[in-house]
Structures are given as C-alpha cells and as structure tokens.
Design goal:
alpha/beta; Rossmann fold; 6-stranded mixed sheet; globular; binds 2-acetamido-2-deoxy-beta-D-glucopyranose; GDSL
Length: about 375
Amino acid sequence: MERAMFLMYLWAFSTLLFLGGIESSCHDQYWQLRKPPALFIFGDSMFDAGNNNCINTSRTLQANYWPYGESFFNTSTGRATNGRTIPDFISDYAKLPLIPPYLQPDIHDYVYGVNFASIGAGTLVETHPGLVIDLKTQLSNFYKVEKQLRDKLGCEEANTLLSTAVYLFSVGGNDYFAPFQKNTSFFESEYIQKEYTSMVIGNLTNVIQEIYNKGGRKFGFLNLTPLGSLPYIKALKANKTDGCDKDLTEVAKLHNSALSEALQKLESQVTGFKYALHDFFTSVDERSENPSKYGFKEVNMACCGSGPYRGYTRCGSVRKPYELCENPSDFLYFDPFHPTEKAYAQIAKLFWSGKSKITGPYNLKYLFKLDNECRTSLIS
Ligand SMILES: *[C@@H]1O[C@H](CO)[C@@H](O)[C@H](O)[C@H]1NC(C)=O
Ligand SMILES: *[C@@H]1O[C@H](CO)[C@@H](O)[C@H](O)[C@H]1NC(C)=O
Ligand SMILES: *[C@@H]1O[C@H](CO)[C@@H](O)[C@H](O)[C@H]1NC(C)=O
Ligand SMILES: *[C@@H]1O[C@H](CO)[C@@H](O)[C@H](O)[C@H]1NC(C)=O
Ligand SMILES: *[C@@H]1O[C@H](CO)[C@@H](O)[C@H](O)[C@H]1NC(C)=O
C-alpha cells in the first residue's frame, strides 16, 4: 500500500517534470535552436551606433571621437554616450549580437537586423537637412535591406523574418530642437505647438504604415523626455529665468499624447499591429526628481561639456576647452543632450520587461517571444 502510494507520487511527480520539461524545452528551442527575431532600429542620436561616422556632416552631429564610448568600448564608435545605448541592451536581452549600423562598410548580412538611426535626424526632412539621414531616407534604406533579404532568403523566409522582427524607434526630439535653436520663441503659441506636433506624428505614422506594408508587425517606441530641461536647453536659458524651457517641455508632452493616441488608433485599425511604448518622459523625470533612488549624484549638469550645466556642445572638442567628469555613472546626462550608459541601462530594462504603467500595452520581452514559441519550421 505504502509502496503503491509511493509509486503514485513518483508517477505524478515525473509527469510534472515531464510537462515542465516540454515547456522548458520549447523555451530552450526558442532561445537556443532558432534565431531570435531580428531587430531593426530607426531614429536619432539615442539609437545611432555609427551611421553618422560615414556621412558628411558637422562634428557636433557625430560622436566618433574621445571621450564618447570611454566607459564600455574604450573607443568611440559613433554612439552619443559613454558606452552602450538602449538598442545595445535590448539586443543583449533578446540574445542577438550587437546590431551594426547600416552604413558600416563590412555589413552585408541582415538576418539579425540592422540599425538605420542617425544623430540629429527627425521625422521631417526640414530637420537638419543635408546633415543627417532623415527618417524617410532611413525608410528607403530599409527597403533596400528588405529587397536583399527577399533575394537571399526567398520570399517565405524573408516574410517570416520581417513579420517576427521588432522595429524600434526613437525620433521626434530633433524636429523640435531644430526650429527652437533658430528661434527660442518658436513654440510660444499653442496653435504652433499643435500644428507642428501633428505634422511630426503624421510623418512618423506614415513610416510605421510603410513598414507594416512590408510585413512589420511588432514595434517599440520611446516617447520624448522633458526636452526643456536638457542641459543644452538649460545652458541656452541660463542667463534668463529658472533654466528650463516650459514651451519645449509642453510641446514634448503634446507630442507624447499625440503619439500615444496615434499608436492606439493604429492598433485598433490595423490587423496584427502590436507595440511597446516606453514612457521615457516619466522615467527621466523620476530620475531627475529622485537621483539617489536610482544611484545618481548629478542630474542637472552633464558629465561632458562646458559652460553652465556643461550644456555647451563642446564634449570632445579639440579646439575649445571642455570639462569631463571622472565618474559618468554618477550622472544622468553624459553630454548636453544624451543620458549616460547607466541611465540607458535602467531605461532599457524597463523597455524590455517593465510593467504596463511604464511600458505598454506590451513590453519588448513579450513582443520578442510572440509567435515564436516552438515554431520548429523556423529552426535553422
Ligand atoms: C562635405 O561638406 C562640406 C561642407 O558642406 C563640403 O565643403 C565638402 O566638399 C563635403 N565633402 C564631401 C566629401 O562631400
Ligand atoms: C583603452 O585604449 C587605450 C588607448 O587606445 C589603451 O592604451 C588602453 O590600454 C585601453 N584599455 C583597455 C582596458 O583596453
Ligand atoms: C520667433 O518666433 C515668434 C513666435 O512664432 C515670432 O513672433 C517671432 O517673429 C520670431 N522671431 C524671429 C526672429 O523670427
Ligand atoms: C510631413 O511633413 C511635411 C513637412 O516635412 C508636411 O508638409 C506634411 O504635411 C507631413 N505629413 C503628414 C501626414 O503630417
Ligand atoms: C551668459 O552670461 C555669461 C556671463 O555674462 C556670458 O559669458 C554668456 O555668454 C551668456 N550666455 C548666453 C547663452 O547668453
């Protein structure tokens, strides 16, 4: 009797193990046997991994000189921070290699994805024209990659790659900086704020639609940070009021709610469209309000730059003097525009697996796993 009970327990226990085993082997297959979904990256300096090294542009729209990259790569790669960017951490979470820039000369294989982002780029062609790869040109570069994938893999496999891939965006900030740099009163009127944001979001939505038409289904977006409080803007305003520019932060808020609405609309109207939107505004705001909670000592002044808040864009200049902090991980901002690697690591973690309050309606972890469990036909 005791023995029978024991055998029953053993049976139940091993069944559990067996079922657990199926689940975890499924999981292992996904992570080990087949290639993870590809990652295609679009946007601006927060995501550029070196495309601007290869275009004729101004030095302030490049980051291929010391001290950029100092904390991780020990060399400047073109990333506008001291180390890795958000897409670098995401590719790591997704078990992908580092995703290379599209213009890197030795890159001909796109099965893990590729990075089209460009420092200074916006959704509008009028944003830094001739000096950046604007979002429309990034889309044309994506078309070239898409065609090459079809030629190389055949339509069926290329379709699968494109529809399981994740498309990551950080764009919009430069569309607002560019006119502001020319005229700091540009966003004074509410009318201009609304007109302008709807143009920026309209152009972004078009690009999303085009990628969808080529088979893209899973998208990830960062919204805009409180633009008016970047060290660069605080330096511009340093001799006036309290530092921050309220109009610029207001326009960032308008942009963010328009983005959120546009994405909800797409999700409800376009079959199979799924996205992760990270509330970057709130993430940065929280770190600015509670630095020590997140391990920062300085959230107003940049690590690298000159002038008030080290907000003048002279980081790495050979001709003009600049200051460089000793320990970038004490800082929220590495240079007048860009967070440090430490801040990016924290944001990437929230983008990957954050709860719906900060990253929603899905997070990137969910999107990467979606439709991929146990699809043995894809195991290569
Ligand atoms: C790069 O741009 C500068 C200034 O616009 C121009 O003088 C130069 O000829 C350009 N170089 C190339 C290789 O196109
Ligand atoms: C970093 O680069 C410098 C200069 O290229 C070199 O002297 C140094 O050994 C490198 N450090 C590491 C840890 O690779
Ligand atoms: C700056 O923008 C404001 C608001 O749009 C406008 O009234 C003003 O004329 C502009 N100034 C210049 C120099 O263009
Ligand atoms: C896209 O931007 C251009 C300006 O570059 C603007 O004229 C156009 O209306 C925008 N498109 C949409 C759909 O908003
Ligand atoms: C602010 O004032 C300082 C000292 O008067 C001056 O050197 C600097 O150029 C001013 N900055 C701006 C942005 O006007």
